[in-house]
Design a protein that fits this description.
CATH architecture: Alpha-Beta Complex
CATH class: Alpha Beta
Number of helices: 3
CATH superfamily: Oxidoreductase, molybdopterin-binding domain
Radius of gyration: 16 Å
Order of helices and strands: HEEEHEEHEEEEEE
Number of strands: 11
Number of domains: 1
Strand content: 25-35%
Length: about 200
């Protein structure tokens, strides 16, 4: 978990306006997770959408690759206070995913992102729709490495990166804004880096 006492390097003037408060710039891509990297059998990999416990749609890895592809380039920010600029991602946009599932509108305003490692995190639909998020399968022109969430992870770049759940297996629509793994342990329910929404008592 992040701690309030963590400090990083002071940003250069040329990059300071791209850094949210309290962040520092890194050229690395740190690996952070709640546990070991899961081993995923790609022959059995499946991505699913749920409305509560009810399955709405699902895709095998082969079928998922046939969905429309999108690319995004920009900055990402971790709650542990590192930021990485100009990252390049490719995957399936959430809007395209809903369209492929035949959903003209989301069933509820709230979602839990579900990982193969039993990790979950809450993300409002408003932060996923409108081209704001994707299920990413490639980073920097290459298939996403397992350590960084491959074969597929959620990418919600305008929120702290713990919201971009690794090893994604599905999205569950919920009737209320349910806390996920880190949110139950004191992290913020939303996680906007520009508002420094790290912990539950941050505004």
């Amino acid at each position: 978990m992040a701690t309030r006492g963590f400090t990083g390097r002071r940003p250069a003037a040329a990059t300071a306006n791209r850094l949210p408060p309290g962040q520092y710039l890194t050229d690395d891509f740190p690996v952070l997770a709640k546990g070991p990297t899961p081993r995923i059998d790609m022959a059995r990999w499946r991505f699913e959408l749920f409305d509560g416990p009810r399955p709405l749609a699902g895709w095998s890895w082969h079928d998922f690759q046939q969905l429309p592809r999108t690319r995004w380039q920009g900055d990402i920010h971790c709650v542990t206070k590192w930021s990485k600029f100009d990252t390049l991602w490719e995957g399936v946009g959430i809007d395209d995913l809903l369209a492929a599932a035949g959903l003209p509108a989301p069933p509820t305003p709230w979602v839990l992102a579900l990982g193969f490692d039993d990790y979950d995190t809450n993300v409002p639909m408003a932060d996923l729709a409108g081209g704001r998020a994707m299920v990413a399968t490639h980073f920097d022109g290459r298939p996403l490495e397992p350590a960084h969430g491959g074969p597929a992870r959620l990418l919600v770049p305008h929120l702290y990166f713990w919201k971009s759940a690794k090893w994604l297996r599905g999205l569950r629509f919920t009737q209320r804004d349910e806390a996920g793994f880190w949110e139950l342990r004191g992290y913020h329910m939303h996680g906007d880096p520009w508002k420094q929404q790290r912990f539950s008592d941050d505004e």
